[in-house]
Design a protein that fits this description.
Elements: E1 7-8, E2 11-13, E3 20-21, E4 25-32, E5 40-46, H1 54-69, E6 79-83, E7 93-97, H2 104-109
Antiparallel strand pairs: 1-2, 2-4, 3-4, 4-5, 5-7, 6-7
Protein name: Protein kinase domain-containing protein
Domain Protein kinase: 13-110
GO molecular function, one term: protein kinase activity
Length: 110
């Protein structure tokens, strides 16, 4: 689990705990340390226990590929950055734009 102010690549964690998560990943709010816009993004950190399995890495790569293929589609979150673990940083993560949530009633109106 990451902590507030932890750094992964160009991304600084700004949430005290994951804002969401599941069996394979945790979601954190982050800011780009090299960008002065102060815009928040979302970092999906894949849990370490599965990172050595071929099927895990394959799912990670498929998710990135799918997000990149659909990046110009309406209602699809845009991928900003990704990292495949290496010797300097073993973490697997995807950074995406932060979506503003809205209620089901607003979804029906659109």
């Amino acid at each position: 689990m990451l902590k507030i102010n932890d750094i992964l690549g160009n991304w600084k964690v700004i949430s005290e705990k994951p804002i969401s998560g599941g069996g394979q990943s945790e979601i954190y709010l982050v800011k780009n340390i090299k960008n002065i816009s102060n815009e928040e993004s979302v970092l999906k950190l894949y849990k370490k226990q599965g990172q050595r399995r071929a099927s895990y890495i394959e799912r990670y790569n498929k998710e990135i590929k799918a997000l990149k293929l659909l990046k110009n589609e309406e209602n699809i979150i845009e991928i900003i950055d990704s990292h495949t673990g290496d010797k300097d940083d073993p973490n697997y993560y995807i950074v995406m734009e932060k979506a503003e949530s809205f209620s089901k009633s607003k979804k029906r109106e659109n």
